[in-house]
């Protein structure tokens, strides 16, 4: 019975970790933006399925058929979760990074790509074989739309174009004006892909309402940490492209030619890009998380998260040495992802102390968004800071930051412990 007491209960709430000061404490997982804990419901569903696990799309046996059904039903569940259009395809991948790389190799050869420099590297880098225009960091959502419109107005209007944008920043937690950016893209004949890695775990994502052409997200940030991700959206470019991986499952028919070569007919369904034995547990667990989130509804999740955001921000505001990083300002709508620096502290040491002395797990660094974090810190764009950043002396700029992030199942105590520890 997966409908246990709390629909969005997560695993790991009673894990004890040692403290450097002696003794132990329950672990406060405040790094949801990197990987969220598994939902109890996801774990229960996976455990219930495990004895029936079988090969997908291959076997004639009962369990193979069952696994194939579960895998294909998972696709339909994700389709519903994302409110896809008729004809959209859901491709199961390894992660958001994998999904965006898949799309990058499926775009037409003459495609122009537009991407803000503020993106996570997963959205920033896969397009490097295409003609890419990197857009400067906007300081308001309106400026983001204007910047994109200007860039698109200058483009070759006859060629294909793609805009890649994140729904919620993995650094500031701020929401981007996706619907407006999609409208601007379409008005200029471009398409748009939404990096929903940080948005989907916190907000409903409707492909139809946002009017985006593709969406990518990761299971491990959506409470389903079993190595799976999703690329969903328009079928045409995906089905005209070479398969992402060549191999069994993607190929419908392979035949030797009389000249000695091989002719391949590739599938035109999602299977075209899913060669090899698929990660059925990963897909199944994503579907389980989608169902749990849909059944629980996002309203209470969002309301609870906004309370936690307010508490963390108020707590941090009481510490004069703390500077919270923000692109769009204090009033911008945001999800539970907050990055900050502490004057006079090396962020890596600070994060290490939160772990060793308080049992709190956060992240430090440049969060795979180097240009954005360097802009927010006002540091040299070329500066190194991800690992082993030198100690920032009092009064000097930090070269990296600390990020705290949370979501379903985060208890007040974790947030209170964090605020107390920072103080
Ligand atoms: N985009 C954003 C906004 C992210 O936060 C992340 C993960 N930090 C990714 C893409 C990449 O996700 P994954 O590591 O699961 O591929």
Automatic annotation (TrEMBL):
Its cofactor is pyridoxal 5'-phosphate. InterPro entries: Aminotrans_V_dom, PyrdxlP-dep_Trfase, PyrdxlP-dep_Trfase_major, PyrdxlP-dep_Trfase_small. Keywords: Lyase, Pyridoxal phosphate. GO terms for molecular function: lyase activity. It holds the Pfam family Aminotran_5. It comes from the Bacteria. Residues 30-418 form the Aminotransferase class V domain. This is Selenocysteine lyase/Cysteine desulfurase. It comes from Streptomyces indicus.
